[in-house]
Amino acid sequence: MARQTSVTLASNGKYWQARYYDNLGRRRTKSLGAKKLLSKRAANRLCDLLAAELVTNPGRASAEKAPGLGEYLDRYLRQRTDLCDSTRKLHERTCRYLKTFFGETIKIDAITRANASDWRLAMQEGRMSSRETIKEATVCQHVRNVKVIFNHALDEDLLVFNPFDRLKSTAPEPDKDWRYVTIDEFEMLLEACLTDEWRVLLGLCRLAGLRRGEALDLRWEHVDLTSKRIEVFAKKTSKRRIVPIVSRLLELIEAVKPSGEVLEGRIVSLSSNNLHRAFHRVCKRAGFEPWPDCFQVLRRNCETDWAQEFPQHVVSTWIGHNILVSARHYLQVPEELYERASA
After folding, report:
1. 238 within a domain of the structure (yes/no)
2. Which residue in 184, 185, 214, 261 has the most C-beta neighbors within 10 A?
3. What interhelical angle do 113-124 and 136-155 show, nearest 10?
4. Rounded to whole angstroms, how far apart are CA atoms 223 and 245?
């Protein structure tokens, strides 16, 4: 029997349905959504979209029934062994928000674009979390995650279209009014630290631009004190980069260098638990009011200083992201530049 690619619109009580034939001539029925949420014109448009999809990708005509949301999300997370720990946690949170809003039993092909918009609104209004609201930048992050999650279903021929594909996922312009810590202020922070390991941790963030996790994971075999370079592996991007060691950072590292010829293990053996709280105590001992994103701000300070001295493509390579990210999220105009220009 010749395969038919035409798709006709039908209804089943309160729901619109698309009917077509698969590669073996068997009639298939696909739910398009509730009539109260989807007009007949919109349902016909989805039928046309499905018909075009079956022509370009005939395999979807014989695809198995779409799984329930909970079943699909659990399988998705099991398959994504390529995600680093931090990214995986973000995807897990996105999946949790999906289950909270839609429930675990709904079929993934029953989620409409209108449902997707409602899900985004629920996050904005704080109905997914114990907090009152979720920041717009965080909402956009979850929208980007869900687009990836449901594109995975498209690749597996489980969906005809991604119901989340039209949601706004571009974060608003970041606020660059973060705390600039001068080198003199940074020395005051170092004096307020109770251990040399804490001084090295802050030095790696402020003077070498390492992320907090990168600084905690750094091992002695990745540090070349002779050539004054550090080899950094970024779990976030799964890339390696080489970062220079400035003289002040070299002094801090030498202070924790173990005796003996063989250097192994982590340079900073601090636990990752409650680091922000401990850093806030360091700030208060130094006479400063703690600032948000304390470790990230030190990294931004480092790039801002480097950008005044080295070409930006070099700075971005050392920091570990591209120039556009630097301009959008990191670089700030320090006060001393205004003073230098006016003088």
Report:
1. yes
2. 214
3. 150
4. 9
Bridge partner list, 29? 19
Please report, for residues 186, 251, 254, the alpha-carbon distance to residue 191 in angstroms, rounded to integers and kept in the order given: 9, 14, 17
List the alpha helices (DSSP H) in 236-334. 247-255, 275-285, 294-307, 312-319, 323-325
User: What is the residue range of 73's domain?
Assistant: 69-155
- Domain membership flag for residue 247: yes
The helix, strand and coil proportions of the chain, stated in percent and rounded to the nearest 5, come to 50, 10, 40
58 and 73 in a common domain: no
The C-alpha atoms of residue 315 and residue 330 are separated, in whole angstroms, by 11
pTM for the model: 0.59
Structure token digits, residue 307: 């950008």
Kindly give the confidence (pLDDT) of every residue in the chain, 343 residues in length, as a single tens digit, with 9 standing for 90 and above: 344 468 899 988 888 888 888 777 778 888 888 888 889 999 999 888 888 877 777 766 655 578 899 999 999 999 998 887 778 999 999 999 999 999 999 999 889 889 999 999 999 888 876 656 788 888 999 999 999 999 999 888 788 789 999 999 887 665 566 788 899 999 999 999 999 999 999 999 999 999 999 999 999 999 999 999 999 988 767 788 999 999 999 999 999 988 766 778 899 988 888 899 999 999 999 999 998 888 988 998 998 888 888 888 888 889 887 666 555 555 555 566 556 666 6
Surface-to-core class of residue 219, CB atoms within 10 Å of its CB (0-12 exposed, 13-18 middle, 19+ buried): middle
> Do 194 and 264 fall within a single domain?
yes
Return d(Cα 316, Cα 321) in angstroms, integer: 5
Question: 326 and 271 in one domain?
Answer: yes
The tally of domains found in the chain comes to 3
| Inter-residue contact 302 to 205 (CB < 8 Å) | yes
| Any domain includes 254 | yes
